[in-house]
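TA notes, week 10

Several of you asked for a full example with nothing omitted. So below is the full record: structure tokens for the whole chain, then the designed sequence directly under it. When grading your own attempts, check the secondary structure regions first.
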């Protein structure tokens, strides 16, 4: 036996279902959104290729000397090494993914004396480095370094 309250409840359910079925779905009638394709995943080998092509590539971590042993400056420099009271050297060398300086790429940007240049070159060849990193990958990158040492000779 169907009671009046039950009929009202069933009728209300049918009315709600009929109303929601007659409404159009806003998501179905909306214009689809155009999405840009996702960036391709750059692999470590791709990062290395990019770094080989551009040794000054922008990275998240530049190469850094872990231990500067031996010291870059000799204990005694000739007086001629001092320019305006300072001995100065600036170098560039490629550090590979293993943290080793590629001495075939060693170049002197500035040096006040050949003895200083020889000392720095010999030292850098023995230094250990943390390699550059980009996108979580170790990449070869130039290591730019310079140092100035004040001397007892002033003014030239």
């Amino acid at each position: 036996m169907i009671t009046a309250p039950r009929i009202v409840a069933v009728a209300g359910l049918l009315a709600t279902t009929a109303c929601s079925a007659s409404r159009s779905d806003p998501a179905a009638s909306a214009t689809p959104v155009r999405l840009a394709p996702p960036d391709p995943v750059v692999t470590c080998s791709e990062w290395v290729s990019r770094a080989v092509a551009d040794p000054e590539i922008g990275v998240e971590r530049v190469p850094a000397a872990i231990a500067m042993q031996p010291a870059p400056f000799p204990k005694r420099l000739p007086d001629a090494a001092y320019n305006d009271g300072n001995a100065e050297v600036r170098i560039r060398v490629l550090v590979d993914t293993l943290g080793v300086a590629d001495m075939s790429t060693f170049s002197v940007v500035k040096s006040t004396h050949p003895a200083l240049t020889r000392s720095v070159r010999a030292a850098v060849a023995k230094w250990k480095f943390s390699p550059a990193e980009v996108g979580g990958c170790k990449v070869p990158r130039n290591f730019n370094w310079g140092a100035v040492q004040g001397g007892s000779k002033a003014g030239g």
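The two ends are 117 Å apart (CA to CA). Use that as a sanity check on your answer.
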